[in-house]
Amino acid sequence: MISEQVELIKSLPSKFASFGAPVQNIELEKLEEELRIKLPKDFKDFYSMINGFSFMGAMVYPLLARESNELKEDLKRIYSREHEEVVNPMPKFYFPFSPNGRGDHYCLDLSKTKDNSEVCPIVFWQWDYTFFHPNDIEVTHNSFTFWLQELLEDLMDEIDL
Fold it and tell me: What is the CA radius of gyration of the chain?
């Protein structure tokens, strides 16, 4: 299903979408090692086909930032900033991958990811809300695949191709 979603993103006119070239597995492994995390398979599969994207204001951060387009922030910088440099830092097991433009992020809940997991839940982190317990945060989707599918469906409804 991820491959179909990526093909849809790649087929969009350039006036609507910006995306990066695929990322090699070694780069994903390096990120996991540096941050001491394990990413779910569907998320890694996405990056092996496309390095993030920007589409009509919606964005999935690239693993590797490209100064030549809108994808200037990258996953490692965002993770570091959201865990170490903000007033209300995220728990380490939340991995931000998509902003809403107001300081909030959709995140992988890596506390639910085991080695070689196919998927993990997606949560919505509000930067200005204090969550007293990790269970207080809203789970929006059961996987990155379902999150991406819903995002693309919503955005496609907004444009006339």
Answer: 15
Q: What average pLDDT is seen over the chain?
A: 86
157, containing H or E segment? helix 144-158
Q: Which residue has the higher pLDDT, 25 or 135?
A: 25
Domain ranges of the chain: 2-158
Measured CA distances, 74 to 43, 51, 80 (Å): 15, 10, 10
Is pLDDT larger for residue 128 or for residue 58?
A: 58
Average pLDDT over residues 77-86: 91
- Work out the average pLDDT over 81-105: 90
Entry pTM: 0.89
Q: What is the CATH number of domain 2-158?
A: 3.40.1580.10
- CB contact set of 58 (below 8 Å; sequence gap of 6+): 98, 151, 155
Name all contacts of 91-100 with Cβ < 8 Å and 24+ positions apart.
Answer: 91/134, 93/37, 93/134, 94/123, 94/125, 95/37, 95/39, 96/61, 96/125, 97/43, 97/60, 97/61, 97/144, 98/58, 98/59, 98/60, 98/61, 98/147, 98/151, 99/59, 99/61
Tokens read off for 125: 């982190």
